[in-house]
């Protein structure tokens, strides 16, 4: 089964752009959720869920994978394909 991938971003985040580009380049489907940088309630809820205070925040089947650096590390180790197949 294909895992559900959610990428929480802001409109002006360069690492968010990189994360989305990397996933697209590997043909990995994801849902983008754009966070308003001025909405403290959204940020607080996201931080409680992930323990992170930065974006992008990438979740796989509801579990935090991490940010762009974590995603790029998986790619460098040829492990992104696992996000296609589960």
Walkthrough of the structure:
- Helix 1 runs parallel beside helix 3.
- This protein has 4 helices and 4 strands, in the order E-H-E-H-E-E-H-H.
- A hairpin with a 2-residue loop joins strand 3 and strand 4.
- The chain has a single domain, classed as Glutaredoxin.
- The model has no long low-confidence stretch (mean pLDDT 95).
- It has 86 residues and is of the alpha+beta class.
- The relative contact order is 0.25.
- The termini are close together.
- A 4-stranded mixed beta sheet has the order 2-1-3-4.
- Helix content is 42%, strand content 20%.
Span of the ends, CA to CA: 6 Å
What is the helix tally?
Answer: 4
Radius of gyration: 12 Å
Structural class: alpha+beta
Highlighted features:
86 residues; alpha+beta; Glutaredoxin; four-stranded mixed beta sheet; 4 helices; 42% helix; globular
Could you give the topology of this structure?
Elements (H helix, E strand, L loop, with lengths): L4 E5 L4 H12 L5 E4 L5 H11 L6 E4 L2 E4 L1 H9 L5 H4 L1
Parallel strand pairs: 1-2
Antiparallel strand pairs: 1-3, 3-4
Helix pairs in contact: 1-3
Give the structure's gist in a few sentences.
By secondary structure, the protein is of the alpha+beta class.
């Amino acid at each position: 089964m294909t895992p559900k991938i959610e990428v929480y971003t802001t409109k002006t985040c360069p690492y968010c752009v990189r994360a989305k580009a990397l996933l697209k380049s590997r043909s990995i489907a994801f849902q983008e959720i754009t966070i308003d940088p001025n909405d403290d309630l959204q940020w607080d809820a996201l931080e409680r869920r992930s323990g992170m205070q930065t974006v992008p925040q990438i979740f796989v089947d509801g579990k935090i994978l991490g940010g762009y650096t974590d995603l790029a590390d998986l790619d460098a180790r040829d492990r992104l394909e696992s996000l296609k197949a589960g």
